[in-house]
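Archive entry. Fields below.
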Amino acid sequence: MTDIASITAAAQRLSGHVRQTPLLHAPLLDRVAGRRVLVKAECLQLTGSFKARGGWSAVSALDPQARARGVIAYSSGNHAQGVALAAARHGSPCVILMPSDAPAVKVANTRAYGAEVVLYDRETENRDAIGATLAEARGLTLIRPYDDPQVIAGQGTVGLELAAQANVAGVTDAPVLVCCGGGGLASGIALALKAYAPGLTVHTAEPAGFDDMARSLAAGTRLKNPAATGSVCDAILTPTPGELTFPILQRLAGPGLVVTDDQALQAMALAFTHLRIVLEPGGAVALAAALFAPDLPDTVIAVATGGNVDPATFATALSRCA
Amino acid sequence: MTDIASITAAAQRLSGHVRQTPLLHAPLLDRVAGRRVLVKAECLQLTGSFKARGGWSAVSALDPQARARGVIAYSSGNHAQGVALAAARHGSPCVILMPSDAPAVKVANTRAYGAEVVLYDRETENRDAIGATLAEARGLTLIRPYDDPQVIAGQGTVGLELAAQANVAGVTDAPVLVCCGGGGLASGIALALKAYAPGLTVHTAEPAGFDDMARSLAAGTRLKNPAATGSVCDAILTPTPGELTFPILQRLAGPGLVVTDDQALQAMALAFTHLRIVLEPGGAVALAAALFAPDLPDTVIAVATGGNVDPATFATALSRCA
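PREDICTED_STRUCTURE:
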């Protein structure tokens, strides 16, 4: 069970190995939004997403024997890179299961970090089953992308930084919009903010058609998405809220927000123009919600979760520039 | 005359008004370079370039009467935005002289910060003469882009941050490559490093054909570029080294480096892929030198100076992605 003590312990293990990311803002972006928007730029994290935190937290928490045998992870790409980098730096063998439709840059980067990549079909194969079989055969420890207490604790370190940075910016009451797949980051941040910045409330942000978390929070029970693919936001197309993450968000998060793919692409274009950061579609949905959702207060924080995007997809987003 | 005391005084005035930018790195970028490359990401600065520092330093150093009458600046765009934001925040009227071929995004942003933009022809008109006439007529204080002691002091705050950040990263001896137009940033950084990190040595980086600073440093006298236009690196196409900046760099900088436009575009693509930051061509020449110049040591620091780039130019750079 992840609690604030496990998040601060993870922060200790991560210190000097991952980056404290900046909280950015831009006067001209605020003008577009009609509100003050502060952006936690996790796209600037090592490996290009917050997943470097969870990966490091999980690998560094293993006992030495397990670490020496190695780890395995399944991921559309960002968790893959986070675990691969952490494993490489710890000298652990690393196998990554990736969907065959993952962006080429993510597959290439995961291999470049030294991991063995095994591809599977997202529509027809069960990644959990494949992962369990491989883990058993090679004695690898499976590091789940969100339903792992140490992964949630690692992602929660974003919340520790955010609590301090928002305080410096004079922001004590605001919604914190978080791009959400399985809910590992959102739940970790929610735990950290509850302890250190209780006026900041997490709201998940998801692409339309893949809003399992928003619907589950509204219904009070874990619901599934009708499809596995069909949004440009590849990084966060998880089938259903996590078993560990959902109860945390039920307790601590407000209602979830939903944006269209086109709004995510517009947010990428506006981040390019005004913040000079590179976001991938799934990493831009929280910013899209901050810019385009109705009924938000005057100040909003958005976590920009990742920036691993193929040039062609980015060029598509750039065509949304005014 | 700018000295270390004026830089630390500028840092006091800038505190809380400009951003401390991160020193980024990426394992996969180091692999491309064949060396360790640390990137000071001034593209993440307010207004998208380090010019926000010099602008704030100069406007905040004016006496109250001069500040109330207003300021004027001439710039291809980044100095324009820096001065415009500083003037707006100080309640000063602001006129900006921009070349008619400046990127549209820079013109639009300068206007959005509230400045009055006056366009001139870079080939046929003398911006200094136009600026002096307007300044005289309206009682405006001319804020030069680099040959101004307070502007150099403001840019020097990059060097103060860099000295501390390099120390944290364990780097005490390395070249610091700085994109160079008139030399305001390079000279300010050189003064700061001389005082706080004397093992870090500034080297200017310029586009081929516009390497007036490198040739001037080699010749020991200020030389001119043969042309005023003809490189994609619009931000740093100044005719000749500054009168104030050149003696500083003569005393403190090593030999200047030169890169091609194509190398600058490649550096933009690699920064996109591995650092997830947006660079403009003129803001990428130091990174290009860090990646592609021969005979550099194992660890190099590059200052990525700006990220105000039109989508079309950025798309051109993305086509260089492997």
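CURATOR_NOTE: The mean pLDDT of chain B is 95.
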